[in-house]
DNA sequence: GCGACAG
DNA sequence: ATCTTGTCGC
């Protein structure tokens, strides 16, 4: 697929925060999904144990059947450290490389991380959606910010994730008896659609099929990659 | 200053 | 995210 090329991204954490504030204003939290959704993609990144090499994977499934259609991966590294709230500056470059290798763009993308449920409303899912110009949904396994009461334990149970006056996400039980997921709009989708798509992608596991497959893909890529020699 | 803190 | 064996439960 085609989208703006990735320039050199050597920003300091402080500059990254400033950029997030500017980009957040461009995020569209509204239902702009096409009438017919045929392809859903999931993204995930795994790291080598010493954090030397990153492995990004994208898995595309048919919708609503969820049958595998295509996949793409990318190997690389990042100098940017993991800082809560600045995850996209660490992972996005490699994730974009993986998407660059996809022949066809999906109608929506599920991301292993937050969408607007972020201090500055620009989690990894929102940043990715903005860059690709494709609708995205954040499906994080844990909370970054916001408050909420626990949802019921039945699949489909949900409670709002709030940050002051704003509803920034939905704490959603995606499988009966398991810990809920933190679902939030990434870009071009609203709260309702974010939850709808996520539930439609959950079969027998807590994680939606797209991100679950991407997770396995990036893991097997890491396991099949020899660890390069140390430098000291 | 202290606690929280996606992956 | 990653380091890790067995183990409890559907």
UniProtKB/TrEMBL annotation:
Subcellular locations according to the entry: Cytoplasm
Gene3D superfamilies reported in the protein's UniProt record: archaeoglobus fulgidus dsm 4304 superfamily
Residues that bind Mg(2+): 44, 112
InterPro entries: Endonuclease-V (IPR007581)
This protein's encoding gene: nfi
Main subcellular localisation: cytoplasm
Keyword DNA repair: yes
Organism: Geoalkalibacter halelectricus
An annotated Gene Ontology molecular function: deoxyribonuclease V activity
Region Disordered, residue ranges: 210-232
Cofactor dependence: Mg(2+)
Protein known as: Endonuclease V
